Amino acid sequence: MTADRLAAATVNKIVTVNEAAVDSSAGRKLIVTALRLLAAGHPITVDELAATAGVAAPDLAAAPVGGDIEYDDQGRIVGWGLTLKPTPHRFTVNGHQLYTYCAPDTLIFPVLIDEVADVESEDPVTGTTVRLTVDPRQGVSGVEPAGAVVTFVDPERFDATRVRATLCDPQRFFADAGAARQWQARYPGMRIVPVPEGFSIAKDFAALLETGATPVSGCC
């Protein structure tokens, strides 16, 4: 599967799972708007999200990845792909310590929020901390270890009603391809790519989430 088809199949599966309740255009707008608001480092209200996105009375439970939205005790959103709650993927933007649900999110979200992010994520096999900086225009830099890779789940093998558990959790950074292959044995069809190539795929994801347009990828 080519990079653009991987992105298209994954995004389409996510945004259309509950299209009868929330159409795919509104769903994309809600999640992208939520990412941009959460990047400021504080919780957001449902009303604030709806007003900013221009979507009336959204049914967030039916929105893309809606079942994985995190709320605080005041009913405010604290996580929707990008989260204020700790995960294995640390994502620092403008001094705000944030986190993401999965490794590829750290490559996708800088493009969607148009901000540079510093990333740290632990390899679940070796325990090595993978570090990098993601610039939406310049790409990735400062990748440590230099041979680090990132994984993408086969879009046919995740449950669109349980995105965090079946898509996000398995997608990780690894110190090298050897470590990733040990992990891959648990997830048939999982794709392993060098981090810079992962960013190329991430740009396709971002384009699809933001506009719904099919990207033209020069990768793979």
TrEMBL record:
One of its GO terms (biological process) is response to mercury ion. The gene is merB. Belongs to the MerB family. This is Alkylmercury lyase. It comes from the Bacteria. Cleaves the carbon-mercury bond of organomercurials such as phenylmercuric acetate. One product is Hg(2+), which is subsequently detoxified by the mercuric reductase. It catalyses: an alkylmercury + H(+) = an alkane + Hg(2+). Keywords: Lyase, Mercuric resistance, Mercury. It is an enzyme of class 4 (lyase). One of its GO terms (molecular function) is alkylmercury lyase activity.
